[in-house]
Please model this.
Amino acid sequence: MTNNGSNRLDRIEVTLEQMLAVQRELQETQLKFQETQLKFQENQQRQETILEQMLAVQAELQAGQLELQAGQLELQERQLRSQDNQQRQERILEQLIGYSITQESDKLDLEERMNALEQRVRGLENR
Model:
């Protein structure tokens, strides 16, 4: 019985060692899984931070684009006003030249008209 009991104890010991080995592998696997989960969470947080930064940059870019568009619109309006003023000035100049050529000096006091024209030009430039 001693031999039989010894064999039995050996088998129990081997079984216990195998169970402990399985338990150790399970614990190592759980630790690796926890590490993987932690890394995943860290990566997710980094991605969220990067996404927030990207959204902030995008918002700044959109605001800048809106400002640029507003500036372009204002510039176009100024250019149109300038063209209108230039066309008016050209018509007045053509009229002045026409009066001068036809010698209708009695209908037009050229100096007064030029002064008025210069005042209008200054007024338009000051706008």
